[in-house]
Amino acid sequence: MTDSRHYLELRFAGQTFLMPNSSDISVEPRENMQLERRARAAALRTVQGESWLAYALDPDWSPLSESPWTRAVFMSFGASQPVGLLVDELKLMPVGSLRIEPFTPLGPAPVPGRHLFPAAAVGGRAPILVMAPEGLAAYLRSLGGDNGLGE
Fold first, then answer.
1. What single DSSP character describes residue 16?
2. What is the pLDDT of residues 26-53, one digit of tens each?
3. Longest CA span, the chain
């Protein structure tokens, strides 16, 4: 998926979020993944001998060892290895069908200098938070212990 004119609608832990699509994002079905029981990751994908870790999150964004996920959304953003979020459901949404409003999140960023939600989709029944893919990738990497640096 490399069309930036779309948003990914992601559902996990009973919550729905949007994320802008980009060439640094790839989606893998569960069939291409292996369950992971080491560390805090719930699954991994092996690509050219490297393990790409993927994390399942609970409603408080703490890692889970298991969840009913169907796909992994991997993000690279200049890091040597992509990191993934396990999602229960994923849809592609055209940009024209959404009204995105930016805002400045309150409080400190969960990883240095990177907030997770810089915008929301408004105009529907309820606002949907829009995730910053770079911030999400940094947060997931910090769960693995590298403080979001991707090293």
1. E
2. 999 999 999 877 678 999 999 888 889 9
3. 45
How does pLDDT run across 85-94, given as a tens digit for each residue? 999 999 998 8
> Residue 130: in which H helix or E strand, if any?
strand 128-130
Asked if residue 18 lies in contact with residue 9, where contact means CB atoms within 8 angstroms, the answer is: yes
Write down how long the chain is.
151
**Residue type for 81, please?**
Q
Write down the residue that tokens 């991707």 correspond to: 150
- Residue 18: burial class (beta carbons within 10 Å; 0-12, 13-18, 19+): buried
Give the three-state DSSP class for 134: helix
- Two tokens at 119? 């915008």
